[in-house]
Specification:
With about 300 residues, this protein is of the alpha+beta class. The protein contains nine helices and 15 strands.
């Protein structure tokens, strides 16, 4: 299982420690003063950086909770043997403040900050939906095999980075300058789905693996999933229609260096594609991977 430990050389840099223990295992978040964070969850470790806006909102929730005066133990294990147990440690100029509570026992004043931390770092993973997606993927690949395409083998496990979980995404071209892929595919492209993408990737002899769970971003109204293509993570967001997608991504600049005027920092080069109502994002310096996705979705419409 993945574990995170605070660096003993610089413990003051760790601003927040948030742990959720449940019968399914432990999930742990470390957030530093410089906005970098680490998340250990499901045996995987992901890292990234919050935007200035995300950090400001979270700090406000932490201060509004007034943990300096209200922190403490709000948990009775005799009442909830199977509940998730939460521990929140917040460090500020006044010292270290610890809240310990459990599902159904949270004091009302703690709910906003617990909800904010959970939404940012530990979004719910709909197992049934994920299983349905994987089943559909397997069926597509089986159909592909029947038409003389090789059956893809499971790709190497790749721990998704924070760029794949909490990095703001995609921009839209001005309406007067639509991308060639968007105009040439017409109404068929507008109906392009995640399953179509998976089938097309398999048709390109790529090894495809759908990761259970979902990607939740505060900048997008659609939830996404991570598809590993030859081991590389690709974030895929399915919108109800193309107009919704364009409205969602219109505020990101063409180089993907800012959104809503806020600067974005990427661990590698960002690449954005769209086809109809499907949005895809990869954060990678692997040119062959970018070329492969471009063969399937058309040239990237934004990024570096």
């Amino acid at each position: 299982a993945a574990t995170i430990s605070a660096s003993p050389a610089a413990p003051s840099l760790v601003l927040v420690e948030f742990t959720r223990n449940s019968p399914d295992g432990e999930e742990r978040v470390l957030l530093n003063l410089d906005r970098t964070y680490s998340v250990a969850r499901g045996g995987q470790l992901s890292e990234g950086t919050l935007s200035e806006e995300e950090m400001a909102v979270l700090l406000k929730e932490l201060e509004d909770a007034n943990l300096r005066e209200q922190a403490g133990d709000y948990f009775d294990d005799t009442d909830c043997p199977d509940c998730a147990i939460y521990e929140l440690v917040y460090r500020n100029l006044f010292g270290e403040h610890t809240l310990r509570t459990a599902t159904g026992q949270e004091p009302a004043w703690s709910l906003p900050v617990l909800d904010a931390l959970t939404a940012l770092f530990l979004p719910e993973e709909p197992v049934a939906a994920a299983s349905a997606t994987v089943t559909a993927t397997v069926q597509i690949l089986a159909d592909a095999s029947a038409t003389s395409m090789p059956s893809p083998q499971p790709s190497p496990a790749t721990t998704p980075t924070a760029a794949a979980t909490h990095t703001p995404t995609a921009i839209a071209q001005p309406a007067a300058s639509p991308t060639p892929s968007a105009t040439s595919t017409g109404s068929a492209a507008s109906q392009y789905s995640t399953l179509d993408l998976l089938a097309d990737l398999a048709d390109s002899d790529a090894q495809v693996e759908v990761t259970p769970g979902r990607v939740v971003k505060p900048y997008l109204s659609a939830h996404g999933l991570i598809v590993r293509v030859d081991g590389e993570p690709l974030q895929v967001f399915q919108y109800p229609d193309e107009a919704s997608l364009l409205a969602d991504v219109a505020s990101l600049d063409a180089s993907a260096s800012s959104i809503n005027g806020l600067p974005l920092v990427w661990p590698a080069a960002p690449h954005f594609w769209r086809k109809g109502s499907l949005l895809a994002l990869a954060v990678t310096d692997e040119g062959d991977f970018v070329d492969l996705i471009s063969q399937v979705l058309g040239e990237q419409f934004a990024g570096q």
